[in-house]
Design a protein that fits this description.
Length: 165
């Protein structure tokens, strides 16, 4: 009689062990996906931060020179389509989807914006020093450039600030 009971416990114990092992595998896979997603978000944030730092460095280099004209490749995470330069406290001469995406940032002291902002990893705007926003936005405010096109950083011989197109 005792033998029959032990066999019954072993057959019932095997499926429970399998179910528990499968449950642990699923938990580890879910944790791995969450961790990978977290590290990808850190990489995107770092990419946006590096873009702003490299742009400020390129502007500073242009200011130090007598005159300058150079291309600046834009390396941003996928999803960001445009880099916009704007004087949101000035007269808006280019209303539209780009302005609608950045108009709520007028309370910040910023002059560079990433569109669409939801892909900018909570770094949708930044103030870049020593750029001539008045000249950049003279025709269009905001002035937006496609990410694929890159930027041109220019400074004339008698200019104190940098012009970006």
């Amino acid at each position: 009689m005792e033998m029959i009971n032990k066999r019954g416990q072993q057959t019932m114990g095997m499926p429970f062990g399998m179910i528990f092992a499968i449950f642990l595998i699923v938990v580890f896979v879910v944790i791995a996906f969450v961790a990978v997603g977290y590290f990808l978000d850190i990489g995107r944030s770092a990419s946006v931060g590096l873009f702003y730092d490299e742009l400020q460095t390129a502007v500073d280099d242009a200011v130090r020179g007598q005159s300058s004209e150079r291309s600046f490749d834009v390396d941003l995470p996928s999803g960001i389509e445009k880099v916009c330069f704007a004087n949101l406290s000035g007269m808006i001469t280019n209303p539209g989807a780009d302005y609608d995406a950045i108009r709520n940032y007028d309370v910040y002291d910023a002059n560079v914006f990433l569109v669409p902002p939801e892909y900018a990893q909570n770094m949708q705007w930044k103030r870049i020093d020593r750029i001539n926003v008045t000249r950049i936005t003279q025709v269009e405010n905001p002035y937006c450039v496609e990410v694929e096109d890159g930027l041109k950083i220019k400074k004339g011989f008698y200019d104190r600030l940098v012009f970006i197109e």
